[in-house]
Amino acid sequence: MKKRIFFIFLTSFFILSSQEIESVKLPGKLKETSGLEYLNKDFITINDKGNDPIVYRFDRSGRILSEIIIKGKNIDWEDLASDNNGNLYIADTGNNNYSRRKLKILIVRTTSNYFNVIGSMILKINKEDKVNIEAITVVGTKLHLFNKNDSLTSVYEIPIHKGTYSLNDYKTQTLKTNVFITGADYDITTDTMLLSGYDLNKNSFINVVRNYRSAQKIYSLTLLKNIKQIEGIKLVGDYIYFTNEKTKSGSAKLNKIPFL
């Protein structure tokens, strides 16, 4: 299935050419997919709030290869990240009604189909702060967390160590994303942050932030026509892969576009 996409640009921008979206349907078990990673040549994903604590491995055709039970409760799993040491990070950080005062990131050691929880990072939230983290990614030796705000997104940088952290102490910057951020992935080679998100009408976007670690950031906001409620994003080779949940307008899907 291929769809045409269109582009919207912010004040600092670069021009992208027209491209095609390629999509495959995901099984019903992944209708609430939330988060996307790539390990050992397979994709992995999770379902969000209220679902079983399971990590799903699947291939590029959308076929589920295995289901791995994680020791821990899925209060509101939202995103995944991984590092170069075989560790997977599961963000139990959803907080839509701002009722949670502590969020958690599970640290999972991965070897083939064996996933073992080896610790966690506890994130304490001040009572007056409205924090709802739905996007995380590894940048160097830290996890970057993105608050799901409307037009401005707060970024927190947490050391990759198990322990307890007062989240407000680790706020480092604010990005002009203009959408609700739901997923993140960082490319160290090009210093590019990829952020998935949607607007109030669940129209989906990819926000490409070039020169991410520089003060001179370049933003481009890409509208993904006919894609509703984008959730996870991952750069694999020369393609940006992203998932969307099942909605009234269509099934959950794995999608890809070229990374230019």
Total strands: the figure is 23
Strand content: over 45%
What CATH calls the topology is: Neuraminidase
- Spatially, the strands of the biggest sheet line up as 1-3-23-22-21
Fold and architecture overview:
With 260 residues, this protein is an all-beta fold. The chain has one domain: Neuraminidase. Helix content is 0%, strand content 58%. It is built from no helices and 23 strands. β8 and β9 form a beta hairpin. The chain is globular and about 40 Å long.
Keyword list:
260 residues; mainly beta; Neuraminidase; 5-stranded antiparallel beta sheet
Secondary structure layout plus pairing:
Blueprint: E1 2-4, E2 6-8, E3 20-25, E4 33-39, E5 42-47, E6 54-58, E7 64-69, E8 77-82, E9 87-92, E10 102-111, E11 114-124, E12 133-139, E13 142-147, E14 153-159, E15 163-166, E16 171-175, E17 180-187, E18 192-198, E19 203-210, E20 218-228, E21 230-236, E22 239-244, E23 253-258
Parallel strand pairs: 11-15
Antiparallel strand pairs: 1-3, 2-20, 3-23, 4-5, 5-6, 6-7, 8-9, 9-10, 10-11, 12-13, 13-14, 14-16, 17-18, 18-19, 19-20, 21-22, 22-23
Briefly say what this structure is.
The protein is mainly beta. It contains no helices and 23 strands.
